[in-house]
Amino acid sequence: MDISNKDWADVLVQALPYFKQYTGKTVVVKYGGNAMLNEDLKAAVMQDIVLLNTIGVHVVLVHGGGPEINALLEKIGKEPKFINGLRYTDKETMEAVQMVLTGKLNKDIVGLLLRNGGKAVGLSGVDSGLLRAKKIQSQGEDLGFVGEVTEVNPLIVESLLKQGFIPVISTVALGEEGDDNTYNINADTAAAKIAVALKAEKFVQLTNVPGVLRKLDDPTSLIKRIARTAIPSLIATGIISSGMIPKIKCCEEALQGGVPRTHIIDGRVPHSLLIEMFSDRGVGTMIL
């Protein structure tokens, strides 16, 4: 499709106020889902992040890797096990988690960013004590080495941002003082806590859905904006349900921690991050 020079100019002029708004500010992006599996979408996300970094937006990329962990477990003949939607993580599974998240995936993402012209550094929650966690249970069920973040020490991330780097963070964490274990952490919740610690301007979750829908089977029923105070009633009426609840809870935690805007956007839409950041069209749900 041909776009006239005037249309190109209009796009840039409309984006300019957003450039000014976010230059020098920190944006934390939780990266996962289809955007992490589809090669074309993966390339688009990397391009978006490098562009943001180039114009002076401080981007922190926090990633999961559930499908890749499952694939490795299957290769070694170990069946993935979930309890109340959370991965049961015994010692062998924890080793697989670390291999996939802090090894292969983290470095793959860093490599993609570098090949797209970005400056990126891979980290895990273990590096410089970035994340500390305690063991959790789910409804009384033991989950093994699964933890929740109790402390974020953002010094290493802040230092990298000041030098113009893009920190890429995998979510494994050290135990608290006196606990020598390493824990598997839910990437959504870790990203929310990192956003709070960094005093981020935005917290964005890339997902496999358009956002919060009034009707699950109707993409046109997207709710574009939700006030934090409306969340309890939307959960009570079932509009926010199932897997969307923990994502909304992460947004809620980030808002309560001082992050002004949080977003759940469709990672299946190419360049959805740029559209959300630099236009008034939006591609998901803003919780504010």
Instruction: Give the number of helices.
Output: 10
- Secondary-structure element order, as H and E? HEHHEHEEHEEEHEEEHEEHHEHE
Number of strands: 14
- The mean pLDDT is 89
Shape: globular
Strand portion: 25-35%
Strand neighbour order, sheet with most strands: 5-8-2-1-11-13-14-12
What's the helical proportion of residues?
40-55%
Regions with little confidence, pLDDT below 50 for 5+ residues: none
The CA-CA distance between the termini, in Å, is 36 Å
Major sheet details: 8 strands, mixed
Which structural class is indicated by helix and strand composition? alpha/beta
Radius of gyration: 19 Å
Features:
288 residues, alpha/beta, eight-stranded mixed β-sheet, four-stranded mixed beta barrel, 10 helices, 14 strands, globular
Structural features, described:
With 288 residues, the chain is α/β, with parallel strands linked by helices. The chain is built from ten helices and 14 strands. The strands form three sheets. An eight-stranded mixed β-sheet has the order 5-8-2-1-11-13-14-12, sandwiched between helices. The protein has a four-stranded mixed beta barrel with strand order 6-7-10-9. Strands 3-4 form a two-stranded antiparallel ribbon. Strand 6 and strand 7 form a beta hairpin. Helix 4 (66-75) packs across helix 5 (91-115) and helix 7 packs parallel to helix 9.
